[in-house]
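General statements about sequence and structure are easier to judge against a single worked case. When preparing material for the folding task, we compiled for one chain both its residues and its backbone structure tokens. The amino acid sequence and the backbone structure tokens for this protein are reproduced below:
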Amino acid sequence: MKQPTFSGTGVALVTPFRKQQDTVDFTKLESLIENVIAQGVDYIVALGTTSEAATMTESERSAVQSFIVETVAGRKPVMLGLGGNNTLNITDTLARTNFDGISAILSVTPYYNKPNQRGLLQHYRSVAEASPVPVIIYNVPGRTGVNLTAETTLTLANECPNIIGIKEASGNLQQVMDILRHRPDGFRVISGDDALTYPMLALGADGVISVIANALPDTMSQMVRLALKGDLKKALPLHFRMLPLMNAIFDEGNPTGIKALLETQGMIHNVLRLPLVKATKPLANKLTTLYNDYRNQA
């Protein structure tokens, strides 16, 4: 496979668990992978936030990574979620990780300890130097408690050749525009927010790493492809068709909503690991209603 550009639609895969044993359901995971590939996504993100990797054991994470790589079998690029708030631990993990079949890592900004911008610069420089594959920064201040500013992002983009893009989930379109306006050639700006993907693409972003694409891979991929071709008029109805579901799946956090929706579709069992819990009955009913509305618009 040629070096991927990571444009288009990436899907942040959920991890299906078995209903009784609370162990990884590899049969359901295989079905999910085959479905998103068949429905046109451009790449797979393994062990991202949506996967509940934080609640898996190291052996489970390794098994899930290997299974995804083996199942994808080179048909699509695979990006591996690998980040944290301990820089030394990340660089040690990079040295121990098997990168066969992995095209890049997605590395979230350090959470909880709230480093300043100088700390974030040094953190990502260390990660970039240690990583044998390209690095995509993941900025999601709503989860981490710290925002990677446009200025810091652009410094990393210009100074670290191995940092090739950012998944931007700040929700701040001014910040997104500042990055897009000044980014160096080849630096990818990827939406980390399903509902803001269309406006970000209209501004010149390169695609999305999507949660809703677990359940709606075909429509999300079509919308992104049309927008990237410049056909925003045809892309807009697809965006609006998905928008109620895009918003609702985050009503009680992620992946609570997307797992409820996937159960409605018959794709997985709706099982999460503590401290996350399954969707409330009102949300589950809301998602079922919205999904039926979505299908009726086909």
Remarks:
- The domain at 8-234 is CATH 3.20.20.70 (TIM Barrel).
- The beta strands are 8-12, 43-46, 78-81, 104-108, 135-139, 163-168, 188-191, 207-210.
- The chain is about 45% helix and 10% strand.
- The first helix runs from residue 26 to 38.
